[in-house]
């Protein structure tokens, strides 16, 4: 169980409104990712749900029960903090056992649950260590372990991987997805990482200055962004946005073409461009080109492509992959 | 030339500081620097300095306790240059005796004191008694019990109880003299195991228990003074200087009801009063002996008494040093306790303080270097007896052990 | 940071402090040690002679010796208990939202700025005096018999005075430590269902343990040397009830002017202090490395 | 934790905290109040309303020159603090940034030098001071207090310095700074809060040091502790006067403490944070 | 000038040898990147060059001059630390001016140089701010500014971007490359980020436990890794390494195929596999497939690919893109 509904929820700190009236429905078992620029209110929203902040107005219900005024401990949610917030003086075992101990469980029950969780998370060998003696990824897993032992109605993750290095992030990403598959518990996950958002989410909520810009599956957002903000925010490298004559030709104020949807040729194409910096990743090459009045474009090309700085290339956007936006920034 | 003077912070000394313009006017080439400290700190300071020849002071305020010891060590300059008009013969003989060695004066008394009984005439009357001029301890005890009215917050008698060689031991040693006790026999054998001491202490503890104020074991001069001034004591046996405080209407609520009597005795020939003088001495190491002598002469001379009298009245003149003062009718008028004070002083003899013979000098102390520490230790034990934390016998036994120990160490007991 | 150059330099930079402190330690220590083997009374300087271990024996056989050691420990432990427990309670209270927090904090830390003799005088004369003290006034107001603090509870009274002086210090350190507790940890515990008490036991206490260590260490060093308060209030009595080691040495040194005996006492005190410090470091020292 | 705190709770805490704070502050407050009473008032029983007489202050001032003592206190406290910092900063630098196995032991040893009871070494020190002509000199006392407090200063600085990332000093080194430049331009300014609070604590400790300051001075260098010693327990009534003197003696440091309270709070942690 | 030579340099801390004997030659103007797993000694090597650590043995020369015993300040190198190590109490201006001040330059000269550097780095408007008032990217630029004013013989960067978020990293990466183009000063750059290493380096040095595994251009490492370690380390997602029969068929103990070099088809191919987790990034899809005894493989497929969990697909490695390794782990 873990159906979470936000009804006209808003939040202000003093006179600054961080979140204007907002409605959101999260279904049981869903993996929802909140994305948005820094400071847009992602953490605040999560903390409202957790009960760590009071709402200024509106109603939050979990499984139909109004929890707006309830203390965090009562909401049966588990949270994994960005900083992990492990208890530094307790061993891994005690960290994981802590919520159970607080719930007054039997020592035997606790032991079993902790050991189970540790097995799932590959922490069995580290149970006697202190958090200070663990690597970042291991700490992360302890934080998750502490969350899962309680079988909460939902998990809340606040940028849990942002402190890890790239390799570890990849691994942890998979582990969390795996966990979601196993437990089938609702998860709400805040991140600013494209890859995490795209690969993990059932549903992405794009926030901007406290407003929900769009809600949808990753592919929906990728393929049909509702407005310029979402278009620019989802996808990496970011979508090329073109104004002026080139856009007008497609009957729009702005058109957007993703770097991976620009065909490249040394002979002919819609836009003529000069190659600037070429970033060779081996698997791909990102070309930053100067396309006259169309502006600077980023193109993703094959890793083997052998173009050089200053060469001329021709670009053609895949016709059915062009996104068109009106003067108000909304998709047409 | 600047001379540095160490003084104790009591009222008379402070007053002298304020009056030094007179001295500097007469001796324009001498500047005075003052170091004023409370009694215990002062004693530590000057003793450390003189014993290590630190040379920080040119004039030191010292008590009758230090003078004989220091004189013996030749740390003090004999005062033979005090000037023609100084009139050393005028100094009360009992006082001068305590400050001299081999017939030479080693410190000039600034003021002197003994102790006597101060009592409330009104309460005495209420109790249906009349205080004789020379009461016995028996009478005092009886009066104290009769005057005590705990409901009205009146204690029959207030006595020192705070531990310390100059606190409770000053009083108790003087008292013990009148009971025929002594600190040491002629072979320096401590005498706390003798019945005289037992009588003294038992008497004191019983009396205080029945007629003394609460918290007596931490009361010293000041505490008792405050109690008496507020009308909470029927009698108080303490320094004669207290008389000017308790009879001063500005501070005292009972100023007009105070009577005075000699310290009590038991008929053995010694009274329970002490003798003390704060005196000015000049350390042997000073480079400025001449200026220092000039100052000492000024501060302890007759002229100074007149100066104070003219500026602040006769009542504020430092008492207890000169016979001429007590013959002065103006002073007698201003200080109703004058005669009693002089009698008290004269009835103490530092060279023969006790009933039985002793090898030491000093009425309420033993003028040996070891006494301060030993006295304080014994004082602690006695105050514990007063506080009810140990029995009189235990306190005396403890005192005896401590004394034997200390005296053996110091080589008095062979 | 670990090049040969810098570590050589480091040794150079340490040198002034180490040398100064070494001299500061060794010269008086050596002189004290020397004096401790002498019969030397300050008032009888002509009579100095070699005493062997006699001074030590004399000091050690002082009837007040064992009680003074016991009192020293009671004083240190008592003050530590009051300041640490009181400091934690105060720090917790001051950490709460309230009106006029700044002023409250100022009031609470003020005793730290009061010179020890002044503190002792004020407490003795105006607070605890059985006749005029505020406590007595209150007792009388409620019709009770005023307590004669310094006669009935001498050591305890001194503990109170000293604790009053050191409570602000403990409070300040603990308060800062409290405020440094990671907010997210508290929130995590809250999400884990921990109530106020559990959070205090499982989070706060372990978190401030290092600060407590600092408090204990620094205060112990100062408390081992307390004597001014005793001198002003009880003079070590009644009996030996409030005589601690420094006071005993004081008695020997500045009342008896027995330099030899006091030196022996000083050496004994140093040895005892170092034993205490050793156990202290063993007990709490590892907290410092965290 | 930014949930609304109900006003009622806040008022509750406010009341509790004020009560406790006033209780703790009471002895000081009462001293100040008493200093404005006459002597008879002072022993006349509990009263928070003084008659407001300044007579005690007048007497205190008449008896001794407060300002001279005050000046000595300032010079000695501040002087010894600065001196201690000058010596301690380099030492703390070495311990924090170039630690060896023995660093901890050295620190502990330094602290242990404070364990010698002052009374026991009075005679040796007095002799040393006498022979070096330092008795009753400000410089002698300043050096003395510097030595007494040096261990604490080194320790505090060490804990502060340890929190400064070594990389910044390395950066300075890469930027061509000499050791001197590194300490003067980078380390010291960065450690200002820590140094400030170390200074404050040290000034307080030096200001309140009441053994040596009395025993080693006579007139020229005597600070406020000696001033107080001339007012405690003379004959006669003295509580109002003592209160006035006490108020005068603690007022400067109290006021300084109040103003620098924030610094002090930050500083006194000895790196207890983290 | 900025030719740096390491000759038989080694480093031990106490008894642990972090860097066994190592030779390295860095040419003037080169952009060299050190990569390797965490703890392999990258930072240590950099610090040895900088003079912040003593070598245990060996010789370091800069421009032919032996600097082994010289103090850092004398080596004319500039270092940008991972944490930036800005002077928090100085303004941006003063931070940048600091090395010049230490060198005893004229105030006027300093002013000119600082302003020039600020212009290049787009910091002109921030000169009066303190580091605490700057965003991560701006701080980064100040750190670089402090390094470039001195015109050092070489720059040393220790993971300078690892603290930044993804977007900023991209921007900063370009800026540093740009700078290298302009200044043409030797740069040594430590990173654990694939993209940075591949796109910025002229030459990559792959370290493993203090040993140099391979030195070469990014494309060289990508195309012809010398051994299994390099093969696994360079490229993202990492190369699929296959042992056993499938490898033996190519005459090797192990063969490696990069995810982007696996053709995918629903009908036929060399290896039959079942689709596991599919990570949809929009632009690409990473399929984690289970290919029988070949093992688990990662395949990079087109973003639009519509395969589902559990479906069967067929994979074919591009034949000329197969890397073959012998029993000793070396490339054959
Ligand atoms: N207690 C507070 N008081 C005032 N403003 C606050 C408070 N907490 C957060 N804010 C403001 O609310 C806004 C949203 O903050 P929030 O932490 O939710 O952002 P975020 O989306 O999580 O950003 P990031 O990705 O950087 O973590 C920010 O502008 C922040 O400054
Ligand atoms: N001062 C030191 N004393 C002992 N060992 C050290 C010291 N400094 C570093 N090490 C060890 O040397 C090894 C290499 O450290 P180094 O910092 O060079 O790694 P790195 O490659 O930079 O790793 P990372 O990518 O995590 O920064 C590590 O195992 C580390 O524990
Ligand atoms: Mg956030
Ligand atoms: Mg590193």
Overview of this protein structure:
The complex is a heteropentamer, with 2 copies of chain A (332 residues), 1 copy of chain B (414 residues), 1 copy of chain C (290 residues) and 1 copy of chain D (274 residues). Chain A has 332 residues and is an alpha+beta fold. Chain A has 2 domains: 228 residues, P-loop containing nucleotide triphosphate hydrolases (Rossmann fold, 3-Layer(aba) Sandwich), CATH 3.40.50; 89 residues, OB fold (Dihydrolipoamide Acetyltransferase, E2P), CATH 2.40.50. Chain A is built from 9 helices and 18 strands. In chain A, the strands form 4 sheets. Chain A has a 6-stranded mixed sheet with strand order 6-7-8-3-9-10, with helices on both faces. A 5-stranded antiparallel sheet of chain A has the order 13-17-14-15-16, with no helix packed on it. The two termini of chain A are 38 Å apart. Chain B is 43% helix and 14% strand. Chain B contains 18 helices and 10 strands. Chain B is globular. The model of chain C has no long low-confidence stretch (mean pLDDT 81). Chain C folds into 2 domains: 25 residues; 232 residues, MetI-like fold, CATH 1.10.3720.10. By secondary structure, chain D is mostly helical. Chain D is globular, with a radius of gyration of 23 Å. Classes of the chains: A alpha+beta (332), B alpha/beta (414), C mainly alpha (290), D mainly alpha (274). At the C-D interface, helix 1, helix 3, helix 4, helix 5 and helix 6 of C face helix 1, helix 4, helix 5, helix 6 and helix 7 of D. The structure holds adenosine-5'-triphosphate (2 copies) and magnesium ion (2 copies). The site of one adenosine-5'-triphosphate has 11 residues of chain A, from helix 1.
């Amino acid at each position: 169980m873990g159906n979470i509904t936000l009804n006209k929820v808003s939040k202000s700190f003093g006179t600054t409104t961080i979140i204007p009236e907002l409605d959101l429905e999260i279904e049981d078992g869903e993996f929802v990712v909140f994305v948005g620029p820094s400071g847009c209110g992602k953490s605040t929203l999560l903390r409202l749900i957790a009960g760590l902040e009071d709402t200024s107005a509106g109603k939050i219900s979990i499984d139909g029960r109004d929890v707006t005024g309830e203390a965090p401990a009562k909401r049966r949610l588990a949270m994994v903090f960005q900083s992990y917030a492990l208890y530094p003086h307790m061993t891994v075992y005690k960290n994981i056992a802590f919520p159970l101990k607080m719930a007054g469980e039997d020592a035997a029950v606790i032991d079993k649950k902790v050991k189970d969780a540790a097995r799932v998370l590959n922490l069995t060998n580290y149970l006697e260590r202190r958090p200070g003696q663990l690597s970042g990824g291991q700490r992360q897993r302890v934080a998750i372990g502490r969350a899962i032992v309680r079988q909460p109605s939902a998990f809340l993750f606040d940028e849990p991987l942002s402190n890890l290095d790239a390799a570890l992030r990849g691994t942890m990403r998979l582990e969390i997805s795996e966990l979601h598959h196993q437990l089938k518990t609702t998860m709400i996950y805040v991140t600013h990482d494209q890859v995490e958002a795209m690969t993990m989410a059932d549903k992405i909520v794009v926030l901007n200055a406290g407003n929900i810009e769009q809600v949808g599956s990753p592919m929906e957002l990728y393929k049909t962004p509702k407005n310029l903000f979402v278009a620019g925010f989802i996808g990496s490298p970011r979508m090329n946005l073109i104004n002026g004559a080139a856009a007008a030709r497609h009957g729009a104020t702005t058109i957007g073409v993703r770097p991976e949807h620009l065909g490249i040729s040394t002979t002919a194409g819609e836009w003529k461009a000069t190659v600037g910096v070429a970033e060779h990743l081996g698997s791909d090459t990102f070309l930053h080109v100067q396309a006259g009045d169309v502006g600077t474009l980023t193109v993703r090309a094959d890793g083997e492509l052998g173009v050089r700085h200053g060469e001329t290339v021709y670009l053609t956007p895949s016709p059915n992959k062009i996104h068109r936006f009106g003067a108000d920034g909304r998709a047409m | 030339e600047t001379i540095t003077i160490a003084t104790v912070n009591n009222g008379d000394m402070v007053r002298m500081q304020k009056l030094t313009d007179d001295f500097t006017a007469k001796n324009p080439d001498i500047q005075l620097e003052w170091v004023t400290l409370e009694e215990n700190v002062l004693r530590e300071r000057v003793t450390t300095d003189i014993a290590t020849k630190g040379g920080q002071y040119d004039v030191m305020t010292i008590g009758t306790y230090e003078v004989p010891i220091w004189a013996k060590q030749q740390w003090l300059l004999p005062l033979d240059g005090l000037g023609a008009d100084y009139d050393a013969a005028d100094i009360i003989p009992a006082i001068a005796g305590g400050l001299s060695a081999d017939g030479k004066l080693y410190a000039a008394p600034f003021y002197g004191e003994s102790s006597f009984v101060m009592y409330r005439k009104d309460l005495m009357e209420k109790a249906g008694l009349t205080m004789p001029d020379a009461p016995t301890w028996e009478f005092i005890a009886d009066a104290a019990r009769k005057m005590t009215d705990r409901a009205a917050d009146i204690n029959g008698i207030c006595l020192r109880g705070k531990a310390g060689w100059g606190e409770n031991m000053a009083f108790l040693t003087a008292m013990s003299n009148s009971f025929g006790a002594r600190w040491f026999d002629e072979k320096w054998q401590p005498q706390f195991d003798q019945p005289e001491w037992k009588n003294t202490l038992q008497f004191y503890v019983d009396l205080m228990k029945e007629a003394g104020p609460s918290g007596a074991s931490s009361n010293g001069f000041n505490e008792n003074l405050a109690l008496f001034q507020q009308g909470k004591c029927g009698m108080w046996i303490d320094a004669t200087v207290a008389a000017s405080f308790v009879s001063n209407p500005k501070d005292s609520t009972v100023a007009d009801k105070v009577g005075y009597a000699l310290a009590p005795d038991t008929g053995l020939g010694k009274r329970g009063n002490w003798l003390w003088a704060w005196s000015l001495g000049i350390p042997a190491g000073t480079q400025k002996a001449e200026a220092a002598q000039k100052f000492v002469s000024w501060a302890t001379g007759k002229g100074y008494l007149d100066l104070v009298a003219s500026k602040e009245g006769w009542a504020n003149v430092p008492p207890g040093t000169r016979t001429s003062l007590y013959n002065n009718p103006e002073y007698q008028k201003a200080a109703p306790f004058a005669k009693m004070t002089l009698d008290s002083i004269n009835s103490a003899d530092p060279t023969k303080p006790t009933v039985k013979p002793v090898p030491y000098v000093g009425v309420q102390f033993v003028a040996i270097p070891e006494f301060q520490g030993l006295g304080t230790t014994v004082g602690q034990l006695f105050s514990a007896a007063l506080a009810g934390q140990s029995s009189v016998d235990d306190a005396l036994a403890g005192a005896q052990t401590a004394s034997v120990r200390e005296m053996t160490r110091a080589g008095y007991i062979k | 940071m670990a090049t040969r150059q810098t570590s050589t330099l480091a040794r150079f930079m340490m040198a002034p402090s180490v040398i100064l402190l070494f001299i500061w330690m060794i010269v008086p220590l050596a002189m004290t040690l020397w004096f401790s083997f002498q019969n030397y009374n300050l008032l009888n300087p002509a009579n100095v002679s070699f005493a062997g271990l006699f001074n030590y024996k004399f000091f050690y056989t002082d009837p007040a010796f064992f009680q003074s050691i016991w009192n020293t420990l009671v004083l240190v432990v008592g003050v530590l208990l009051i300041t640490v427990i009181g400091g934690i309670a105060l720090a917790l209270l001051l950490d709460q939202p309230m009106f006029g927090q700044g002023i409250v904090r100022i009031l609470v830390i003020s005793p730290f700025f009061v010179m020890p003799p002044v503190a002792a005088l004020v407490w003795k004369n105006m607070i605890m005096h059985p006749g005029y003290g505020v406590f007595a006034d209150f007792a009388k107001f409620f019709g009770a018999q005023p307590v004669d603090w310094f006669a009935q509870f001498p050591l305890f009274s001194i503990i109170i005075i000293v604790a009053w002086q050191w409570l602000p210090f403990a409070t300040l350190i603990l308060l800062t430590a409290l405020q440094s507790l990671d907010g997210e940890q508290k929130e995590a515990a809250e999400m884990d269902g921990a109530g106020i008490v559990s959070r205090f036991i499982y989070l706060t206490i372990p978190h401030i343990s290092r600060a407590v260590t600092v408090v204990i260490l620094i205060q112990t060093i100062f408390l081992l040397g307390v004597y001014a308060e005793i001198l002003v209030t009880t003079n070590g009595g009644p009996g030996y009830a409030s005589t601690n080691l420094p006071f005993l040495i004081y008695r020997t040194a500045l009342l008896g002017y027995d330099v030899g005996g006091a030196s022996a006492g000083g050496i004994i005190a140093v040895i005892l202090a170092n034993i205490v410090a050793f156990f202290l470091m063993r007990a709490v020292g590892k907290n410092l490395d965290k | 934790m930014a949930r609304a705190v109900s006003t009622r709770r806040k008022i509750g805490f406010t009341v509790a905290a004020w009560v406790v704070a006033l209780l703790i502050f009471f002895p000081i407050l009462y001293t100040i109040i008493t200093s404005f009473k006459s002597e008879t008032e002072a022993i006349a029983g509990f009263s928070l309303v003084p008659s407001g007489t300044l007579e005690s202050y007048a007497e205190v001032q008449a008896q001794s020159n407060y300002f001279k003592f005050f000046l000595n206190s300032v010079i000695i406290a501040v002087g010894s603090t600065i001196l201690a910092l000058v010596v301690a900063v380099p030492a703390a630098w070495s311990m924090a940034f170039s630690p060896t196995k023995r660093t901890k032991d050295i620190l502990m040893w330094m602290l242990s030098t404070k364990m010698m009871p002052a009374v026991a070494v009075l005679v040796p020190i007095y002799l040393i001071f006498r022979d070096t002509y330092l008795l009753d000199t400000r410089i002698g006392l300043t050096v003395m207090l510097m030595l007494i407090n040096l261990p604490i200063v080194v320790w505090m600085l060490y804990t502060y310095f340890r929190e400064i990332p070594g990389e910044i000093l390395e950066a300075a080194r890469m930027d061509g700074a000499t050791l001197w430049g590194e300490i003067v331009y980078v380390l010291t300014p960065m450690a200002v809060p820590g140094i400030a609070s170390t200074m404050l604590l040290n000034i307080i400790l030096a200001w309140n040091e009441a053994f040596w300051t009395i025993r080693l001075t006579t007139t020229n260098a005597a600070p406020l502790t000696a001033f107080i010693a001339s007012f405690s327990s003379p004959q006669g009534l003295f509580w109002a006067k003592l209160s006035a003197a006490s108020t005068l003696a603690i007022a400067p440091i109290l006021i300084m403490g109040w103003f620098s309270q924030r610094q002090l709070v930050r500083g006194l942690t000895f790196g207890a944070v983290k």
